[in-house]
UniProtKB/TrEMBL annotation:
Pfam families noted in UniProt: DUF815
Species, as recorded: Gluconobacter cerevisiae
Keyword entries, A-Z: ATP-binding, Nucleotide-binding
Taxonomic lineage of the native organism: Bacteria, Pseudomonadati, Pseudomonadota, Alphaproteobacteria, Acetobacterales
Signal peptide range in chain numbering: none
Keyword Coiled coil attached: no
Residues passing through the membrane, by range: none
Name used for this protein in its record: ATP-binding protein
InterPro entries with a match to the protein in the record: DUF815, P-loop_NTPase
Keyword Protein biosynthesis: no
């Protein structure tokens, strides 16, 4: 093989390897969109053109919690100090919806006054070990970002909580100033009770072992509980949805059907109310936009 042929072959091999290897992650895309999914395996941020969720006006029965999340998010967008947020509590009460709706509402406020907007970046619970890689990308941008982890919890032998803990602790390689973490969980202490109890039986110092795991939730500056809906709360949510989608149903009939729907499911929550409205809208032939 001549030197020219050898050089040509090496160039082709190099080009092939370059195509196979993804480019290093870049934060440039953060300035083009408001919401992203972090794909740890590829090391890229994938834009989300339309975030699934509901407007703040449809989140009824959680005004105190909404005010807290909105104030914290607003402070962060305006360049002030703010806290990491943990929303925990009953299923279907709008924890993740509150996060997404608050960021969207604050961005709308910021745009109205030509202020800086936030980027919402969702990271999956089983990809928390990639947090250092994601944070390395976010350190290269000045845009303020909220990392969102939905349905956060940990099981036995799960060490991913250490990755999150190191970021929340704010060490040398921890969370940069332009990043906050918002998370939701159905568990108050992010792990099942039997896991906490197992620590007591297997650790040399049980109290220290429990503290190591349970204290993770304490590292969120705002720790906000959302509880199950009362019947009045549930009906208020249903009526708000019905008004939003302009469903022509008399109030008494709407409430009666909504209670029947909840009774059949053995639950009252914002999610149950949304499911009822979806079924009712389809029955009436009214599309939900």
């Amino acid at each position: 093989m001549t030197d020219h042929a050898l050089l040509s072959a090496l160039e082709r091999i190099a080009a092939s390897l370059e195509r196979m290897s993804p480019p290093p992650p870049s934060a440039d895309i953060l300035h083009k969109h408001d919401a992203f999914l972090w794909q740890a395996a590829l090391g890229v941020l994938t834009p989300v053109e339309k975030v699934s969720g509901v407007p703040l006006s449809l989140l009824q029965g959680v005004k105190r919690q909404m005010d807290q999340v909105m104030a914290n998010t607003r402070h962060f967008a305006e360049g002030f100090s703010a806290n990491n947020v943990m929303l925990w509590g009953a299923r279907g009460m709008g924890k993740s919806s509150l996060v997404k709706a608050s960021v969207a509402a604050v961005n709308e406020e910021q745009r109205a006054k030509s202020g800086g907007t936030l980027a919402l970046i969702e990271i999956q619970r089983d990809e928390l070990s990639s947090l250092p890689k994601l944070l390395a990308v976010l350190r290269t941008t000045r845009r303020r970002c909220i990392l969102f982890c939905d349905d956060l919890s940990f099981e036995s032998q799960d060490a991913d909580y250490k990755s999150l803990k190191s970021v929340l602790d704010g060490g040398i390689g921890g969370r940069p100033e332009n990043v906050l973490i918002y998370a939701t969980s159905n568990r108050r202490h992010l792990m099942p009770r039997d896991m906490i109890e197992n620590e007591t039986g297997s650790a040399i110092n049980p109290s220290e072992a429990i503290e190591e795991k349970v204290s993770l939730s304490d590292r969120f500056g705002l720790w906000i509980g959302l509880y199950g809906a009362t019947q009045d709360d549930y009906l208020t949510i249903v009526e708000a949805y019905a008004a939003y989608y302009k469903l022509p149903v008399p109030r008494d009939e709407l409430r009666r059907k909504a209670l029947q729907w909840a009774m059949a499911r053995g639950s009252r929550s914002g999610r149950v109310a949304s499911q009822f409205i979806s079924d009712l809208a389809a029955e009436l032939g009214i599309p939900q936009q």
